[in-house]
Amino acid sequence: MLDSLTNRLQGVFSKLSSKGTVRENDLDEAMREVRVALLEADVNFKVVREFIKNVRERAKGADVLKSLTGPQQVIGFVNDEMVRILGEEQAGLETASKPPTIHMLIGPKGSGKTTTAAKLALNLRKSGQKALLVSADNVRVAGSEQLKALGKQLNVPVADLSDEEPKALAKAALAEAQKHGATAIIVDTPGQIAYDTDSTADLQKLHKALQPTETLLVIDAMTGQEAVNVAQELDELFGVTGFIMTKMDGDARGGAALSIRAVTGLPIKFIGVGEKAEALEPFIPERFASRILGMGDVLSLVEKAAETIGQEDVERLEKKLRTQTLDLEDFMIQIQQMKKMGPISQLVDMLPGLSNLKSQMNLDNVDETFWDKAEAVVYSMTPEERRHPEVINGSRRRRIALGSGSTPQEVNRLLNQWKQAKKIAQAVATGKGPNLLNMIRR
Questions:
Q1: What is d(CA 82, CA 1) in angstroms, rounded to the nearest whole number?
Q2: What's the topology of domain 298-441?
Q3: Contacts from 282-285 at CB under 8 Å and sequence distance 24+?
Q4: What is the CATH code of the structural domain delimited by 101-284?
Q5: Of 434 and 232, which is predicted with more confidence?
Q6: Nearest Cα to 129, choosing from 165, 172, 92, 100?
Q7: Higher pLDDT, 121 or 324
Q8: pTM of the predicted structure, to 2 decimals
Q9: Does domain 3-86 have CATH number 3.40.50.300?
Q10: DSSP 3-state assignment of 218?
Q11: Is 135 exposed, middle or buried, given 0-12, 13-18 or 19+ CB atoms closer than 10 A?
Q12: Which end of the chain is more exposed for a tag (fewer CB within 10 A), N or C?
């Protein structure tokens, strides 16, 4: 997520940190490189201009040029400004004074509204609410069928009201909510291509009939600057209350997320970080800025871990880490746990100082198929080989490959991944990485 921008900014910070003090030309060069990095990330040029201006003024006002901690102060100012333009405080969903709360999802065609509706329903359930999914999409072929399938998968009730007129739809949605005891209604609407058509007028009628507490614009983060233009246009038409940025896991640049809040003044409420139903995260500006700057996001990682890793597993893993005896069986157990938390590459992003391992380990290309194959390889080993992978020689490698339906090269690949994982484990165990286990226990 936002890898290109993160890598560029980390390069700037590394160069700046290598200097004992910051001279005026060092500050100018750093700000010039930050400016280029933001523009290349497709951040709105007005936002970039204000960003650089504010950081420069704070740096000079704090006498950074005379300070021995100048490089660290400049990095801190960049972080502060990043948080500021992202909105500073987390913006949660509003709740109606009298349930059910109506959340209406709008947005361009292909932005991911239907899958986001299902993800939002699951998110609300985690917070103790019960959601009803309503299909109001009378344009897309099989749109309501997709929502029904997602609802069935997540055990969330779905009402197909796509053929109803706006007033009748609003009345029927409230009746269905009462029937199912739902405290929230999530309305999936037709995607728009242009916003001066009859379909837009129909959507406005539906908006008026529903009177939603939240009008959430679902926008594809990968559309870059165009996302900001769409946001401004739809806010004028519907009075948007916030954004859900989808496909953040595939967005290497980050321009939309960094621009949309600053330009519109409206908050990002959630970000979609994958295809799975659980891959919808509340947007927390401070944590997001930390990820962009390569400083990790330990709190979010701990929250994910606490949901999936039991106390017994934590204690067992802690003992293994402390004694540095993590073996290949432990490796597979932990990988299975981590898979529940999300893609491995995203988890590494959350570890301070370890985001550069993504490129070294080629984590973006590690998919479910790889881990299925890895499990077959591990369980084709003898107990001794699992406990002591260093004994695996050429003949053992060929035997393991034959037993797991793989090749010696694939066995080598797994062993190399294992060595990298041990490095991470040792960093945590020796205090060079974050002590996540103690944090999870708390």
A1: 16
A2: 434 Repressor (Amino-terminal Domain) (1.10.260)
A3: 282/90, 282/92, 282/123, 283/87, 283/90, 283/91, 283/245, 284/90, 285/83, 285/86, 285/87, 285/88, 285/89, 285/90
A4: 3.40.50.300
A5: 232
A6: 100
A7: 121
A8: 0.70
A9: no
A10: strand
A11: buried
A12: C
The amino acid at 262: A
Kindly indicate the confidence band of residue 60, based on its pLDDT and cuts at 50, 70 and 90.
confident
CA distances from 292 to 23, 38, 87, 385, 391 (A): 26, 11, 15, 40, 41
Whole-angstrom distance, CA of residue 93 vs CA of residue 269: 7
Q: What is the pLDDT of residues 383-426, one digit of tens each?
A: 889 888 889 999 999 999 999 998 998 898 888 877 776 666 55
Q: What is the mean pLDDT of residues 244-258?
A: 77
Q: What is the mean pLDDT of residues 69-92?
A: 85
C-alpha distances (whole Å) from 99 to each of 91, 113, 257 are: 20, 23, 31
Start-end of H helices in 211-275: 225-238, 255-264
User: What integer best gives the mean pLDDT of the chain?
Assistant: 81
* Span 282-298, pLDDT tens digits: 998 888 888 787 765 44
Q: Rounded CA gap, 285 and 269, in Å?
A: 10
Cis amide leading into 100 (omega within 30): yes
Q: Are 220 and 108 in contact (CB under 8 A)?
A: yes
Length of the chain: 442
244 three-class SS: strand
What does the alpha-carbon distance between residue 124 and residue 184 come to, in Å, rounded to a whole number? 8
Contact partners, residue 7, CB within 8 Å, separation at least 6? 294
Distance CA 348, CA 38 (A): 23
* 131, pLDDT greater than 90: yes
Give the per-residue pLDDT at 254.
65
217 DSSP assignment: E
Q: Do residues 200 and 225 lie in contact, with contact meaning Cβ atoms separated by under 8 Å?
A: no
Pull the structure tokens for residue 389: 């992978």
Contacts of 392 (CB under 8 A, 6+ apart): 381, 385, 400, 411, 415
How far apart, in whole angstroms, are the C-alpha atoms of residue 193 and residue 201? Answer: 13
CA separation for the pair 168, 174 (Å, rounded) = 10
Q: Is 186 in contact with 105 (CB distance < 8 Å)?
A: yes
DSSP-assigned states of every residue in 115-170: HHHHHHHHHHHHTT--EEEEE---SSTTHHHHHHHHHHHHT--EEE-TTS-HHHHH
Two tokens at 397? 């490698």
Return the domain boundaries, the chain: 3-86, 101-284, 298-441
Half-sphere exposure of 20 (CA within 13 A, CB side): 0
Asked if residue 370 lies in contact with residue 414, where contact means CB atoms within 8 angstroms, the answer is no
Q: Fill in the amino acid letter for 1.
A: M
Instruction: Compute, in degrees rounded to 10, the torsion defined by CA atoms 418, 422, 423, 429.
Output: 160
- The answer to whether 297 touches 273, Cβ cutoff 8 Å, is no
